[in-house]
Amino acid sequence: MRGTSAAQFFRVSGTAGQATAQSTHGRDAEYCTGPNVRETSTNPVTEGIQMKELDPQVVAMLEEMRRQAALQSTAAPPATWLERLAAMRARIARPTPLRGTPEAVASVADRTLPGRGGPIPVRIYDPRGDHLDGAAAEPAPALVYYHGGGFVAGNLDSHDVLMRALANRAGCVVVAVDYRLAPEHPYPAATDDAWAALQWLADHAADVKVDAARLAVGGDSAGGLLAAHVAQRAKREGLSLRLQLLLYPNTDATMSRPSWQSFGTSAYLVDRHDMKERYDAWLPPEIDRASPEVSPLFAQDLSGLAPALIVTADHDPLCDEGNEYAAKLRGARVKVEHVCWQGMVHGFASMAGALDAGKALIERSAAALRGALS
To answer: Which PANTHER family has this protein been placed in (predicted)?
Structure first.
C-alpha cells in the first residue's frame, strides 16, 4: 500500500480544517467546546452524536475506515481487553498510507540508551548530510519525541513517517524514544524512560553532534503527557529546554473534563471506556490520578517552564485538558502558542496521508521548532 496515494485511497474531498491559532501569552485562549454544539444525523459515521461540523476530509476518512472495518468483520472480535490490545498493537505496527509517504532522511540510526529499567531503544533522525562521510559538523539542535498510543501501544515504527517529516522540515536531529509500555511495564516505567532519554542526550550531546543548549521535547497524545512531565521535571532539575511541542496531549489522568463526554466515543476514534482501561493498565491503584506526576495539568507551579506549542482538535475528547493546560501555562506567564484545529479529530498529525490539516500541522510544528531552536 506504500505506493498508493493516500488521498486516492481514502477518496478525500473538501478543504482542510481551519486552525484557530492563538499566541496566548497574555490573551484568552479560544476553547473548542461550548454551546455551539449541534445535533446532526447527516453523517452515517457519527449519526446520533452531538457534534459540530467535521472537516469533509475527516468525514471521508472515517467513512472509509468504517467500510474497511465492515469488510474485515468476518472473524470473531477480540473477547478480552488483552486480546483487543494485541490486535491494536498489531494494527498500529502495520504501514498505512494514512500516515503519508515516508521521506528519506540523511541518517536514520537505531541504538539503545541506558535506563533505570534496562536499555531504552531510540531512533535518531539526522537531516544533516555534511558529516556522514567523516567531515566535521556543527552541533545541531535536537527534539526528543515521545510517541502516542495510550501508554499501552505505539513504537518507533508507528511514528516513523512523522519523525522523518519533522526532522527534515525543522532541520533538527530527532530522537524518538521507545519507552516501556503498560501493562507489562506500569507506571513509572514510561516517565522514567522519558526522563532518562532526555537526560542522556543532554549529558552526551557531543557523542551525536547535538547542541545541548538547544534541546526541545515533544509528543502526541500520551506522549504529550510524557513531554509535559519531562518539561516540568527539567525545570526542577535545572535542565534548560527551548520548546515543548504538545500535540493533542493527555494532561489529566482523571478524565474529568467535559470533552470526554462530548467526544469520547469510537465515532471520534478515542473511546472514553477504552482510554480508562489504558489508564488502568498504566497506573497502579495506589497512584493518585490527580497527582502532577501523572496529570501535568494539576501542577501547582508552572512558572519558568519552557515555551510551548500546544495543538488541540475540537472533535477530540482530549480537547478540554489540552486547552486548560495552555491556559494554565499562560497564567503562569509561560510563552504559549495554542492552536485549536477546527473540524479535526485526535491524532491528525499521523493522518497526513489523508488530511491536509495533518500536513499543515507538521509544517506548523516544524516552524515552531525552527524558531525555538535557532
So the answer is: AB HYDROLASE SUPERFAMILY PROTEIN C4A8.06C, ALPHA_BETA HYDROLASE FOLD-3 DOMAIN-CONTAINING PROTEIN-RELATED
The answer to whether 113 and 120 have CB atoms below 8 angstroms apart is: yes
Domain boundaries, the chain: 6-373
State pLDDT tens for residues 153-194: 999 999 999 999 999 999 999 999 999 999 999 999 999 999
As annotated, the active-site residues are 221, 316, 346
User: Is residue 302 within 8 Å of 328, Cβ to Cβ?
Assistant: yes
Q: What does the alpha-carbon distance between residue 66 and residue 91 come to, in Å, rounded to a whole number?
A: 15
Other residues' Cβ atoms within 10 Å of the Cβ of residue 354 = 28
Closest C-alpha to 322, from 216, 190, 228, 181: 228
DSSP string for residues in 119-185: -EEEEEEE---TTTTS-----EEEEEEE--STTTS--TTTTHHHHHHHHHHHTSEEEEE----TTTS
The CA-to-CA distance between both ends of the chain, in Å, stands at 37
CATH of segment(s) 6-373: 3.40.50.1820
Phi and psi angles of residue 126, each rounded to the nearest 5 degrees, phi first: -125, 110
Q: What residues contact residue 358 under an 8 Å CB cut-off, 6+ apart?
A: 100, 348, 349, 350, 351, 352
3-state helix, strand, coil split of the chain in percent (to 5) is: 35, 15, 45
Instruction: Indicate the pTM of the whole model.
Output: 0.88
C-alpha cell at position 260: 470526554
